[in-house]
Protein: EAL domain-containing protein
Amino acid sequence: WAKDEGRNRLAFFDRERSSRQQTRYALSLAMRDALDNNEFFVDYQPIVGLADETMFGVEALVRWQHPTMGRLAPDRFIDLADENGLIGAIDAFVLEQSCRDCKLWQNEFGGRAPFVSVNLASRQVSDPTLAGRVAATISSVGLEPRSVQLELTEQTFMQTDRQSVESLRALSAFGVAIAIDDFGTGYSNLAYLGQLPVDVLKLAGPFVTRMDGQGADRSTDELIVKSIIDLAHNMGISVTAECVETEDQARRLAALGCDSAQGWHFARPTRADRIVELLQNANP
Ligand code: C2E
Ligand code: MG
Ligand code: MG
Ligand code: MG
Structure:
C-alpha cells in the first residue's frame, strides 16, 4: 500500500515536471513571434543617491506580456532565451527601448533625466559585434554614451575570454559605464576588478537583506559590506546596493558610505509613464 502511494506520488511529480517542461518548450517556441508582435516591454526601477534620495538612474527590466499566460517575469524566459539564441535580440530590444525612453526624458527634463542601466546576458560579451552594435544604437537615438550603463553579472566577469575583455574595453572607451551585477553572490576573484574597466559594483541582495538582523551576524555582515565599499572606492568604483526593502537598511548602507541604492523601499520597477510622473513631482 505504502509502495503504491509512493508510486502515485512519483507519477504526480513526473506529470508536474513534464508539464513544466512542456510550458518551457512552448514559451521557447513562442518567443520569436513574441518579439515580432511586441509582446516584450521594459519596466524601470529607480536608482537613487543615498545622500539625498534623488533618482539619478533607472534599471531597465524586461517583461513579457504573453497573450494567454499573462505577464511573465524575466526568470521565466531569460535562461530559455539564452538556450534558444534569442537573448541577443531581446537584449538589443531592451537597449534600444531604454535609449529612446531616456532620450524622451532628457528632452523634457534635461540634466534631471536619469541614466538607463541595461542588463546584458553573459554570452553577449563574447560576441565580437557587441560593442559596435551598442555604439550604433546609442548614437542612432542621439544619446550620449554616458547616459547608458551596462550591467554584467559577476559570473560574466569571472569567465572572460580575450574577446570579452576587448568588448568591455571598447564599450568603456566609447563612454558607457560598466557595472558588475549581483556582486558577491558567487565565488569572487577580486583580481578582475583591477584588470577590467569597471565603474560600478552592484552589491547583491543577500548582503543587504542580512544587514537587517541583530547581534554578531549583523556586525559581521556590515564589516564585509564596509570592506567591499572601501575596496571599490579605493579603485574608483562606485557602489549601488540592490534589494533595499527597509528604511533601516538604507540608513545603514548610507552610514557605510554606499553611494546609491535601489529596492522596494524606494520604488518598485514601473512603467516609463510613471518615471515621467516621478520626474514631474520631484523638485527641480
Ligand atoms: P537583476 O539585474 O539583479 O535585477 C534586479 C531584480 O531584483 C529585478 O527582478 C527586480 O525586480 C528585483 N528587485 C528590485 N528591488 C527589489 C527588492 O527590494 N526586493 C526584492 N526581493 N527584489 C527586488 P526581475 O525584474 O524579476 O529581474 C530578474 C533578473 O532578470 C535580473 O536581475 C536580470 O538578471 C535579469 N534581467 C532582467 N531584464 C533583463 C534584460 O533585459 N536582459 C537580460 N539579459 N537579463 C535581464
Ligand atoms: Mg541588473
Ligand atoms: Mg569608463
Ligand atoms: Mg542584480
